[in-house]
Amino acid sequence: MSNDFDVTIIGSGPGGLAALSAIREDYSINMLSDVQLNRASRHIRESNKRSKAKRICVIDPNPDWLSQWERNFEALDISFLRSPTVAHCCYFDRNALLAYAISQGREDELLESGCSDIKSLKGTILPQVGLWKLPSTKLFIDFSRDLARLLKHKYIQGKVVDIDKDDSLDSSFKITIGGNSEKVISSKSVILATGAVGRPIIPKPIKELSSTRIFQWQQLDQAISSLEQCAAKKRKVLVVGGGLTAVQTAHKVVKKSGAEVVLCSRRDLVERHFDIPVKWFDEREARFHQSQFYFEPEEERLKALKSTRGGGTVPPVYMKKTRALEIRGLITRMTGDVVSITEENDDSLMVTIKRADDSSEETIEIDVIIVACGLKPDCMAHPLVQKIQEKWPIKMTGGFPIVSDELQWTENLHVVGGLSSLSVGPDANNIMGISRAAETVANALNSKNWLRKKESNVLRNPFDVFLDETDVSSDEEE
């Protein structure tokens, strides 16, 4: 049947693409020695593609890969990724994005990140060869979509509204896709790649006030349009949040409207290249920190997630721009909490902020409030996850599911991205963490088993050459 699949990936963001690549690619050249690579390519050539390729389906409400990311980039006028060029969704080669930029003549879309100046990174090869440069958002999207086109799969635009087990189909999953015409497909395995899942964090005084002058950052263009209708000559916008999204929101408001922005955060802005410490990216240290995290109890892992990510952070390039706008009087930074809001005859909002340093209060007249406080982790905020938990309940802690070592929720139902945080680590939502999760799931689905088989000879013990037939026989007898 055309609607029967071996693997169905729910989500066409980086998590879905990384999973597709990890399953489809025969091996990663970064995982094998030159000798092993020669054995692998020879075996594939001689066996004429070991076995029948898996039938893979990808389902997402959007029409194309990374559409939601693309919309977010456009909404915030983001020109370059925060993640370096080494972070992408291609399982085969970590140099793939850099090679793509060079082959396409788009090296000018790689921005120097400043990471090569970080003392702890000196001595690694990555800064020297350009893998710490930041790709433009356009380059990253183009690369990702070209990669997806090379990996055989069926793409279905639609929203998965239910998943169930179908005993009549050899315990396959029955996946219901909603829309104008409901569709049902079956799949032996399912991978949830839903991205970050949680509930928006909204300060209580803002949440309690119903006003047409309050917006979420996703409504940024609407907020800017509403400013044009304000009677005040000098318009003022309050952006609430202390991370990169809040800073990007403030920058766009200034650029598009010329309004003065008050950027209010509960603590001082923290300047950092990435949203987690560099040690999680440094290949000399990363495996140690990953294994250390892995062997902690779940409650300790949750603490580690919070302490390592440590709230919102802002890269140096954005901090530099923020300081420049402060000097020009276009951005004012305040550290504290919004404690009360009143609406003045539908003309403006009177917002009282309690400062963090001395607990003094200041009331400011504001035309528009934009909230960019991030998400509180809560996987049950996702309707599909709710249904999965009802059918196959597992333990939760801190809003995250406690999945198996193979990132399995229930048999043959796997997760990547934010849902895998308690197993993968603080970088589970980052592209490099997503790629590790995708590899774990691909291995669980036996996509790389052929590498270990005797006939492929790829992962043969290099010391086997020192054994004689007697040693082998005695081992087998035992």
Task: Please describe what this structure looks like.
This protein is α/β, with parallel strands linked by helices and 478 residues long. It folds into 2 domains: 4-197 and 377-452, FAD/NAD(P)-binding domain, CATH 3.50.50; 202-275 and 312-373, FAD/NAD(P)-binding domain, CATH 3.50.50.60. Helix content is 33%, strand content 22%. The chain contains 16 helices and 21 strands. The chain has helices spanning 14-24, 34-47, 67-75, 96-103, 125-129, 137-150, 204-208, 220-227, 244-257, 286-294, 298-309, 316-327, 383-391, 421-424, 431-444, 469-477, and strands spanning 4-10, 56-60, 110-111, 134-135, 154-157, 159-166, 172-178, 183-192, 198-200, 214-216, 236-240, 260-265, 331-344, 348-355, 361-366, 368-371, 375-377, 396-397, 400-401, 408-410, 413-415. Strands 1, 2, 5, 6, 7, 8, 20 and 21 form an 8-stranded mixed beta sheet that branches. A 7-stranded mixed beta sheet has the order 10-16-11-12-13-14-15. The protein has a two-stranded antiparallel ribbon with strand order 3-4. Strand 11 (236-240), helix 9 (244-257) and strand 12 (260-265) form a beta-alpha-beta unit. Helix 1 crosses helix 15. The longest helix has 14 residues, at 34-47.
